[in-house]
Write a structure and sequence with these properties.
Length: 181
């Protein structure tokens, strides 16, 4: 485990576990959101996104977190492990709502000067409301990664399903032990 892709729905803990795994392995942590979301929430054009992510993947080891279909083929072709954050909907929703409110109230900077607007929680369009989007996509993400984990095209990858904090802790301990060898 040296090149790890961490995937899952918003609020599942991708970034938190990704940072812990990267530290345990002694490799870089890369948050795809930080590359994709430019100042003013401008999206990086697909060809630039692929080029920048491709450059990151040239390193010997890394932990990349994010679900972008535009670069999944690049990330998974270079990865040896996919960590699938498959938390229960109730857990994910509790985290997303709490995190969104906290970030909006404190005006916490996310990436490239961007901040979550509190009003975003009240928009009807799921593409503009992370809470609504997470609720509506939870099952689809679970199905996507369950299918990918048994797809023969992904036979070169080890899939690790994380359903709770204990699973994450065991994985970090395994990574730490593996890196110590």
């Amino acid at each position: 485990m040296q090149r790890v892709s961490v995937v899952g729905i918003s609020g599942s803990g991708k970034t938190t576990l990704g940072r812990r795994l990267a530290a345990a392995l002694g490799v870089a942590h890369v948050e795809l959101d930080a590359i994709f979301h430019q100042p003013g929430w401008t999206e990086l054009p697909p060809e630039d996104f692929r080029r920048r992510v491709g450059a990151v993947l040239e390193a010997d080891g890394w932990v990349v977190d994010g679900n972008y279909g535009a670069v999944r083929d690049l990330v998974w072709a270079a990865a040896d492990t996919v960590v699938w954050m498959d938390r229960p909907r109730a857990t994910v929703m509790r985290r997303v709502v709490g995190r969104t409110v906290r970030r909006a109230v404190t005006r916490q900077e996310l990436w490239n000067g961007n901040r979550e607007p509190l009003g975003g929680m009240f928009r009807r369009d799921p593409r503009e409301n992370l809470v609504r989007w997470t609720w509506s996509k939870h099952t689809r993400y679970a199905e996507r990664y369950a299918t990918a984990s048994v797809d023969p095209a992904n036979a070169h990858l080890t899939f690790v399903r994380v359903t709770d904090d204990a699973d994450g802790d065991r994985l970090v301990a395994l990574a730490r032990a593996s890196a110590a060898r």
